[in-house]
Specification:
GO terms for molecular function: DNA binding. It comes from Paraflavisolibacter caeni. Keywords: DNA-binding, Transcription, Transcription regulation. InterPro entries: HTH_HxlR, WH-like_DNA-bd_sf, WH_DNA-bd_sf. By secondary structure, the chain is mainly alpha-helical. It has a domain at 31-119: Orthogonal Bundle (Arc Repressor Mutant, subunit A), CATH 1.10.10. It has helices spanning 5-16, 18-21, 26-34, 37-49, 54-60, 66-78, 100-133, and strands at 51-52, 82-87, 93-98. A three-stranded antiparallel sheet has the order 1-3-2. Strand 2 and strand 3 form a beta hairpin. It is globular.
Length: 134
Amino acid sequence: MAITNKDRKQIAAVFSGTCSRKKLCPVKDFMASFSDKWSIYTILLLGQHQKMRFNELRTAINGISQRMLTVTLRALQENGIVARLLYPEIPPRVEYSLTGLGEGLLKQLLQIAKWTEENFETMLKARKKYEKTL
């Protein structure tokens, strides 16, 4: 699939818009906020399960520490991607879910996941080829 002139114009529009006039570039800000593995994995899990408690997320995300999950969930909440619902019970119960904004992001991540599945073997072959050149 070749990059078209329309695609190039869309890319140029991203960089000539707010990125050139303001210090905050939406694309860079998005990538800094959500491109880490923990955020993406958390969004995908919440999309699959709809609602999850903290310990359910921690168990499901192999390798994440309690602190990193806390930081990740707070960042996702701050940006309106995840909602945190606290039930006034004893002991307190907290559930996390995607907001409407988070569901929109999830749909885009699913497109990336589909592309990854379709191209994973090609990427593995490219890695092996690259390793031989070192």
